[in-house]
Every structure is written in C-alpha cells, then in structure tokens.
Amino acid sequence: MAKEALLEIRDLWVEVEGKEVLKGVSLTIPRGETHALFGRNGSGKTTLLMTIMGFPAYRVRHGQIIFKGEDITRLPPYERAKRGIGIMFQRPPTIRGVKLREMLKLCAKENGVKIEELAREFGFESFLERDVNRGFSGGELKKSELLQLLIQDPELVLLDEPESGVDMENLQVIGRMIRRLLQKDTHRPRTKSGLIITHTGFILQFVPADLGYVMIDGTIYCQGNPQEIFEGIQKHGYEECISCLRRIEE
Amino acid sequence: MSEKDRRIEPRIEDFKPAKEGRIPRSIEELTPEEWARLKEVGIEPEAPKEGEFLQADARVVHCRKLPEGLELLPVTEALKKYDWLADYWWKAVPAEKDQYTRATAEDLDDGYFIRVLPGTRLIYPVQTCLYIRTPGVAQKVHNIIIVEEGAELNLITACTTHPGVRSGFHIGVSEFYVKRNGKLTFTMIHNWADEMFVRPRTGVIVEEGGTYISTYVTLHQVASIQSMPNCRLVGPGARAIFGSVVVAPKGSYLDLGALVSLEAPGTRAEIISRSVSTGGESLARGHLIGKAPEIKAHLECQGLMLSDEGAIKAIPQLDAYYANVDMSHEAAVGKIAQEEIEYLMARGLSEEEATSLIVQGFLNVRIEGLPAELQKRIDQAIALAREGL
Fold first, then answer.
1. Are residues B347 and A109, on separate chains, in Cβ contact within 8 Å?
2. Is A210 exposed, middle or buried (0-12, 13-18, 19+ CB in 10 A)?
3. Which of A14, B110, B154, B189 is deepest in the core (most CB within 10 A)?
C-alpha cells in the first residue's frame, strides 16, 4: 500500500519581484519521510520552501500545494502553521523586547509541550529570558529556531540549510534536535515529514533522508538516493546532473 | 484661535474651576467602574505599599501613610505645618515659567507633599493618584517631594479621569528634591480622556551621589500633553534617567521630553524614549547640557509609525561646554519590518497578533534600577493597551 502523501506539489510556477523563479516544480512527500533538496545558490530551493510556507512575496502563478489532502495554495502563513507546517529560517530576524520564553509560549499554543524541559535538554535554558534572536551567534540562532519548531511540533518541517554557520560541536546538538523533530530515533512508524535544503550534505550524516532532489534553474532535474546524488555532485558538480540519465523527462 | 493652536495652547478660562466639581468626601463613594479605571493606571488597592494618596478634582479624599520616616500630607496642610517649605516652594520650577504655572500659583487645588526622612529606605511604593471626576474642570495641583540624605523612595503616580469624563484640563506642578546619596524612582502612568489637556510642569534637583529615575507612560487617546521636566544634577556623581513609553492614537498631540543639566563633575544622564503613532502626533524631545567636565550623557529616541496619518518628530539636542565630556544621541523612526511580521506568522500568529506583539516588544524598554513592582505595573498597562492597538 502506498504511503499517504502529506505534501503534494503540482506543477508549481512562482514569481518573486516580477522574476520567474520556480518553473513547474512537482514533488510528493509521503507521511514519515524526509527528503533532501540540493542545488546551486539561486536555483530556487529557498523559494520553494518559502512558497510552501506561504509568504506573500512568493507569488504562485500556476500550480497547487496540497497538504493533508487540502489545497492550501492561497492560505496565509499562519493558517498553514496551524495546519501543521513549520519552517526553520536561515536568517531569522530579531524581535526586540520579546523574550524567547514568550515566543515559545505562543508557538506552543496549548499543545502541552514542556518549554523548560526541552530548553534544558538542549542546553538553551539561559536564552529563555533573552530577546528573540538578539545578539545570538550562528549556532545559537539555529538552536533557537529548532527549539521553536520542537515546541510548535509541526507535521511537516521545512529546513533551510540547518548546518550553515555552525561549528562542529554545535552541529552535533543541531543534528540531535532535527532527529527529534523528525522522529528519527523512534521505532514506531514515523508521522513527521521533512524537506531539507543542504549545500554541504553534512546534516545528512545525522539525519538520513529517504529521497533526494536536484534543483537547477527552478525545476527539479533528478530525484533518487540522496547519498548517491550528493556523492555525484561532490565528484562531478551540478553540470553532470544536467546531462545525467536519471533526469526526469518532461 | 485655530483648533490646532488651542490644542497646543489650551486656555484655562475655557474650563470650570476644579473647586466646583462633584467631589466625593471619601474613597468609599467611588463606584466599581471608577475603581476599574484606577486599576488600569496601576492603582492596586491590595498591593503592599508604604502610603497612598488620592485627590479628586480639588479635594484630597484619601491620604494614609504607614511607616515612620515617611511624611505624606496634602500640600496645603504641609504649607501650614512647615515654614521651611518656603525653601522648596517654586524653587525647582519657577512660578513665572508660563501661564499654567502662574495660574497654579494664583489659585491652587492642593497636591501632595512627600518627605522621606534621612536614611529611611522605603521598599514598597508610595502610590498617589490625581483624578478628575467632574466633566470640564481645570485641576491645578502642586506637589513637593523631598528625599532626604541617604533615603530612598519609589513613587508611582497615576493620573486618570472618571469613565464618564471626556474633557478637562490638568496642570500638575511637581518639584522633586533628591538630597545627598538619596534615590527616587518616579513612575507616572497617564490614562486621560480624548478631550483632556495635560500640562505637567516638573523640576528636579539632585545633589551629590543622588539618583533620580523617571518613567513616564501614556498609551491612550488624549487631546494634548506637553511636558519637558527640567532636571539639574548639581552634585558630583549625581545621576538621572528619564524613560518614556508613548502611544499617540489619532486625535492626540503629545509633546514630551526631558532636559537634564549636568552641572557637576562625574554626573551622568540618560534619556530613553519609545513612541508609537497610530495616527496621532508625537514629539520626542531630549536636551542634555554638559556644564561640567567628566560627565556622561546619552539620548535615545526611537519611533514606530503604524499609520500614514499623524507624525513622529524626534528632536534631540546636546550642548557641551567642556572638552572632557562624553555625550551622544541616537534617533530612529520607521515602520515595523515586514520580515518580523512574517516570521511570527510562520509560527502561527495572525498578522494582527504579530503586529501587536512587535509593538509591545518595542515599548518594552527596561529602565535600569526600576523596582520589579513598578515594572510590573508598567507591563500590565502596556499589555492592556496592546488589546486596543
């Protein structure tokens, strides 16, 4: 029996500031699976994530985003968040005068997730009384984002380069946090899904992906075993992908 | 006179004398609606405090103090009791300053006298309230606050109107004297009515090693408030901090600031202002004058425009008269960053919820040295006002 599709993207065309960035993207993430998205800078990876979250600057010209069987293409971000989509920002803004603890309470709504316990487990309790993201280092920003997501507890997690700007020591903690988020340590069937953008592929050592995609110039050129794709890119670069046999025929 | 001029320079003659108000004999006469209104400005009948004072229109209806070492009296009584009060009367604010101080000097509607005796450090706040209960009156009060050597006082003053009052005029002359090594924390929360005119006239004199910390909060619609406390740091090492948290709704004209004159070596001053316009006009002034060497003074004005109506005008001024001074200012006015709203929306907040949280955060300025109890009252006032933003 095929797994239930949590997210389905059908022929998505997206414009940002008058420029066409996504040109017919289609993909399906089944419930419980983690997929990885590779591609050069400017290929449209971040645009895809931002469009799934529903930010207004990302204008959908054509196509559909289906989440849990519902067409969410026109919903604002907070409606998508309420339905179970969460995003980790690459460069989150500072919210001055708002304590991280207060923000986490808002993320939690009434889902019963214990803020103190989680913060302590990941060595972040001393940040609860600080303004959200104010003066945080690269690694601290990532932890703050992941803590917010762990408390928000979404069914679909969108991660934009979770390892960028993080030192080796913090990479371990961030890897643990993402494993927790995507239920990688559980023996029960997983219910959480993820879509991860990665340049370095580092994060896949901590969080194995079920499927990988290569995005080139706003379209998905190939999909397959994420480890093989990543090794191929490392050896031959993205040029090889363009002529690769696995290319999805239009 | 145009409507705008009248807003900037209201005339006392347009109002009834406060002595003709419907003045209650005691606080037992206040209705539950009036108590609800008083609570909005931080009057907490149950909270621990050292003393309490309430004046409605022209009469002091409640005045009670607990500890030894604290004197709290209607100012008219204090004037009869103490001849020496002449040394403090109109000494920090000149009686001839303007038409409003002159009117108060000619016909006084009472006020409070507070004196903390040498070495007495009061832990809980002293709470005072100046209340306008009758529509259309002009209330003219004069307060004297003396913190003697090594003494400490936390004073919270709440000013508001009866829920049924829309118009009125409040003139409040306040003279603060902080003696050697004394500390005075003064928190003022205003919640007036949409046709109220308010003219506080404040003078502060801080002696050697003394500290004066002022926090001013106004979050609701009011016709106009104009206030520029004048603070003199006259002794070495004296220190003053002025913080203000201001919301200018449509129909409000708020001209607020502080002037600190640093007149002795090693004095320090800081003026921090946060203002939000939702359609009203807010002038944020700050004037620091370095009249002695080795002083340090900083001014910070930040404004947030939430509407294309109204205005925010930041007017900082620094005057230095010695080479060895450290004086600086920063001012910034802008709108809420779309990026911050979207960030919060991705965490499940609607656009309105996100905006209101960002505004609350912006207004959430932490004044160093402000006691937790006073900070709590300010936070409560901002949280209440946030619902209306």
1. no
2. middle
3. B189
pLDDT value at residue B169:
96
Whether A86 and B357 lie within 8 Å, measured CB to CB: no
What pLDDT was estimated at residue A202? 83
Alpha-carbon torsion, ordered A229, A233, A235, A238, to 10 deg = 140
- Per-residue model confidence (pLDDT) at position B202: 98
Among candidates A96, A97, A107 on the partner chain, residue whose Cβ is nearest the Cβ of B348: A107
- The b/e string for A1-31 (b: 16+ C-beta within 10 A; e otherwise) is eeeebbbbbbebbbbbeeeebbeebebbbbb
- What is the DSSP secondary structure assignment for residue B12, as one 8-state letter? G
Q: How many Cβ atoms are within 10 Å of B374's Cβ, its own excluded?
A: 21
Residue A143 is predicted with a pLDDT of: 93
Task: List, for residues A109-150, the tens digit of each pLDDT value.
Answer: 776 678 888 899 998 999 999 999 999 998 999 999 999 999
Which positions ≥6 away from A3 have C-beta within 8 Å?
A30, A31, A32, A33
DSSP A114: -
Two tokens at B13?
A: 């003659």
Query: What is the DSSP-derived secondary structure letter of residue B13?
Result: G
The confidence band for A248, taking pLDDT boundaries of 50, 70 and 90, is low
Assess B345–A contact: CB distance below 8 Å, yes or no.
yes
- At the second CATH level, the architecture of A5-243 is 3-Layer(aba) Sandwich (3.40)
Rounded distance between C-alpha atoms, residue B242 and residue B208, angstroms: 18
Q: How many residues does chain B have?
A: 389
Q: Is B384 on the interface with A (CB under 8 A)?
A: no
Element (H, E) at B367: none
Contact between chains at A95 and B339 (C-beta distance less than 8 A): no
In angstroms, the CA B85 to CA B78 distance is 8
Element containing residue A158 per DSSP (H, E)? strand A156-160
Contact B342 A89 (CB under 8 A): no
Residues B189/B199, Cβ–Cβ less than 8 Å:
no
Q: How far is CA A203 from the centre of its chain?
A: 12
Per residue in B228-265, pLDDT tens? 999 999 999 999 999 999 999 999 999 999 999 999 99
Judge whether B347 is closer than 8 Å to chain A, CB to CB: yes
Q: What is the pLDDT of residues A71-93, one digit of tens each?
A: 999 999 999 999 999 999 989 99
| pLDDT tens-digit readout, A58-75 | 999 999 999 999 999 999
B346 close contact with A: CB closer than 8 A? yes
The answer to whether the beta carbons of residues B301 and B314 sit under 8 Å apart is: yes
Q: Among A235, A201, A218, A240, which Cα is nearest to A38's? A: A201
Mean pLDDT of B27-33: 87
Backbone Cα Rg of chain B: 20
Strands A70-71 and A85-88: unpaired
What is the complex's ipTM, to 2 decimals?
Answer: 0.92
Is the Cβ pair A95, B365 closer than 8 Å? no
B350 touches chain A (CB under 8 A): yes
